């Protein structure tokens, strides 16, 4: 896919953050946009920001499998085809393995992993039918390394990475016209920390303060990197200097990276 003009692009989680920035970046490139989010107010603001482009908005909870498949059918009915699916919607959970509830564990997996998996599977037949498709799944740098209090988030993002890398190989082996990219953002200045669920060990203020310190990249810059990665058909798209650094450390040290993470977080984790 060398040109995105007139391509039908689906973006989940488009009501804020990277999703909104992606909608803007794609609109500039002449894409036809199917934007979804569970937050209708934020979604309306995104639609207003890309006015003048061909865009339709949909309220969607990616944690609802049936809703995702119905959404895929509706988008195809509205646009006639789909060329790109960007499974971007996600949430955060800060809790130790001992402290997190089963409900919170299921909540983050339903959105961050199953939302991506079902989104991919629901749209994949339509991407193949288009003759020029692309799956873009948003993982994280926490899909590259494990971090204390992030076990559930790690589990979801590592799962997205494995699922996506396997899919890319399958599409190539079967000679199907669908490219596949896995995106690993570092710290991006979004509101994900504000909406995160936390155990009693954490406070919202502390989480936000810590997040602000490591958020090195704007959503707009992240979106530009992702779009360029799509056009280059990159299998792994690293977003931000911290993502490149973490990837390099992981490749260089292997599992020996873990003592570094432990030292960095020891003073912040109470057990």
TrEMBL record:
Q: Which InterPro entries match?
A: KR_dom, NAD(P)-bd_dom_sf, Sc_DH/Rdtase_CS, SDR_fam
Q: Which residues form the Ketoreductase domain?
A: 7-191
**Keyword terms, alphabetized:** Oxidoreductase
What's one Pfam family the UniProt record gives for this protein? Answer: adh_short
Q: Gene3D superfamilies attached here?
A: NAD(P)-binding Rossmann-like Domain
Q: Which SMART domains match?
A: PKS_KR
Q: Which family does it belong to?
A: Belongs to the short-chain dehydrogenases/reductases (SDR) family.
The protein in question is named SDR family NAD(P)-dependent oxidoreductase
């Amino acid at each position: 896919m060398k040109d995105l003009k007139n391509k039908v692009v689906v973006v989940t989680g488009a009501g804020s953050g990277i999703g909104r920035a992606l909608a803007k970046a794609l609109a500039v490139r002449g894409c036809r946009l199917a934007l979804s989010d569970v937050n209708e107010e934020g979604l309306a603001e995104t639609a207003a920001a890309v006015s003048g482009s061909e865009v339709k908005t949909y309220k969607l909870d990616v944690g609802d499998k049936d809703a995702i498949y119905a959404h895929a059918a509706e988008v195809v009915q509205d646009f006639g085809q789909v060329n790109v699916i960007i499974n971007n919607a996600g949430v955060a959970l800060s809790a130790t393995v001992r402290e997190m509830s089963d409900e919170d564990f299921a909540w983050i997996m339903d959105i961050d992993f199953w939302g991506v998996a079902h989104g991919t599977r629901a749209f994949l037949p339509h991407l193949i039918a288009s003759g020029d498709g692309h799956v873009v799944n948003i993982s994280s740098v926490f899909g590259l390394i494990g971090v204390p209090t992030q076990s559930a988030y790690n589990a979801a993002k590592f799962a997205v990475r494995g699922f996506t890398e396997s899919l890319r190989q399958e599409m190539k082996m079967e000679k199907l016209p669908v490219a596949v990219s896995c995106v690993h953002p570092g710290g991006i200045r979004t509101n994900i920390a504000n909406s995160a669920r936390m155990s009693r060990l954490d406070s919202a203020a502390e989480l936000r303060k810590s997040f602000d310190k490591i958020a090195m990249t704007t959503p707009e810059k992240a979106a530009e990197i992702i779009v360029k990665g799509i056009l280059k058909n990159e299998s792994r798209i690293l977003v931000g200097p911290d993502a490149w650094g973490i990837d390099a450390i992981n490749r260089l040290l292997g599992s020996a990276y873990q003592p570094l993470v432990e030292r960095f977080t020891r003073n912040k984790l109470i057990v």
